[in-house]
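Need the bound structure for DGJ, inputs here:
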Amino acid sequence: MNITYNEKNRLFKLDTPGTSYCIGVVDEENFLGHVYYGRRLLDDQLTYLLRTQEAPFVPTENNRDRCSFLDSFPMEYTGSGLGDYREGTLAVRTTEGHTGVSLSYVSHRIYDGKEALAGMPAAFGSKESCKTLEITCEDSILHLQVILSYSIFADTDAIARSVRIVNGGSEEIFLTKVLSACIDMDNEDYEMITLNGSWARERVIQVSPVRKGKQSVGSVRGESSHQEHPFIAWKSPTTTEETGDIYAMNFVYSGNFLAQIEENQFGSIRAMMGIHPENFCWKLMPGESFQAPEVICLYSAEGIGGMTRNFHDLYRNHLIRGIYKDKKRPILINNWEATYFNFNTEKLLEIARQASGLGIEMLVMDDGWFGHREDDNTSLGDWQVNETKLEGGLKHLVEEVNKLGMKFGIWFEPEMISPDSDLYRQHPDWAIQIPGRVGSLSRNQYVLDLTRKEVRDHVYDMVAAVLHSANIEYVKWDMNRQLSDLGSYGLPADRQGELLHRQVLAVYEMQDRLTKEFPNLLLENCSGGGARFDPGMLYYSPQIWCSDDTDAVERLSIQAGTAMIYPLSTMGAHVSDCPNHTVGRTTPFETRGYVALAGTFGYELDVTKIPQEDRDSIPGQVAMYHKYNDLVREGDYYRIAHYAENHFFDCYEVVAKDKSEALVTYIQVLGRANCHSRRIRIPGLAPDKIYVVENAADWPELKQTEYGGDALHYAGIQVPPLAGDFRGRLLHLVAR
Ligand code: DGJ
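Answer from helper R.:
Posting the output first, comments after.
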């Protein structure tokens, strides 16, 4: 890892273990241009790549033909309104109503380590593991400084980028768009990968050609959302899981975002990512600064899998924090699908008694324990225990659960308010609403205006009081509606455009407070399933509920999309009852266990009501989790086959970092008549090691149980057809 500045060529070069990223400073205008991003290079004489002499540009002595120059030049970070007709990354409005902004290089600094982003999640690293380049650019007319920050890491190829804007002038200025990163490069027939979905169908992998014009994904819903994901990748058409070029951007942010690729008239692309400009307008007073969130950029020459493993390492080593970061999580049983709102102390204890006997380690009480909430119409905001339902109180329940040797966890939805709540009756103006309009309800609730300090303090204090009242060791922080009706009673007219970003900052502030006041708490974020599964949230909670769809087959696709970026240790995954509550499908209990094993692993069912045969399998599944979880949490993840593409089977693998063992999960989704065995190639192993099938008893069909690492990768093994649908098997390979 190294960052250099070649004074003579005016070229910055950032070298990660496997990649180089180069930025050039151009001639007398001092524009910053993007020069190169790709495989690591020794050469740093790359300024010849800067497109400074391209037609139809006509150079003049001191002032280029600005429009044609700016409209084709590969900018490192753009202004707007002065001749570059592509969409830009920064837009402003002055008090006179003007919008032009243009940035030129002023100075830079290179330092060891990485500074935190005030009030915001960001990757971190020590002085030994990380280096940062900060380039200061300026619009000398507006006296606006733009500080571009790039951090690189010794153990992954990621580059963390962010932008800070400082108003050095004497008048306020309105920032109408501040994206966090931009990459201009030539299009080489790239295809774009995005993750799209809906409630219960999150993060489905989509591949589409990059074509002329703009292609974007984004959220204007106030959260990163079920529908689109703050991630884009672009890859060569020949890139596979194991080889080929791929570039990616992922946003360390949990609110509105825009991720866009624009191909221009000359076949160059501009990829960019940041806070969505819709409904964004930030008033920046003289002397103030605005920090835009961080984007993680990645290039890999080792295909989609190479990109994935780099993201996993970055997030495991440089984003996720807290005592559970590198630890096995307690196996929990959550009562949502078991009881929904219909529970009381005795019912929960009945579940806990059975569960503890089977080896389950924590009971989580989900929605419905507070106010008079018997359905989703009421009581959000009234975080007082409903003692009619929880007879004897919360402390009593927790003590009884603890006596069984189990931990106790609880659900909250702190950002919300029900119209039928004491809180709303007392403070109707605490909801986000446009004065004079009837507020739009979603799941029968409004969103609290957390931009107001008194509101977030009040809610935080209520949540903290509950947590102090009993031995609560886990919190599921839910968020079940997206934002609309954007109006805050707390913000002046010229700051209403700050509402959405301030709301996200407020959530971060509350979670920061929570994790500091309760450092031993296991926090799991959630948003109507997986609508806020993003790196911003991972900074506060080491795991996030992946989806409300707990069907094992649907989960294969949801988890494959999620694991394209996020480590398996972060994916909340539970075994639930069948027929599945969202899709009505019945799958073997064993298969449900295998699929949940690729996440945090837990249960979401009424253990007192499931078939005896299923109940009897739980101790075996618990043992399986304890046996494999270290490997699953810490290992390298490889996608081998994706059933959403082949329609019949799914297969993935986790390999220990030292290549001493690997766990392959094979799920035959649909059985087929008259089939040969299926050849599966198992990558990632040490080619010169011999691997033994440790669980050979589960594989009576295998002709041999010892294989060379290279044979497993290049020749593969033959998996026999399994009788029936939705059947799964694990293959545990251990180096001899
Ligand atoms: C949505 C979550 O994803 C579910 O797991 C559950 O907690 C419900 N909310 C409760 O309202």
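Comments: The longest helix spans residues 612-634. The pocket of DGJ is lined by residues 336, 366-367, 411, 478, 480, 526, 528-529, 545, 548 (CB under 6 Å).
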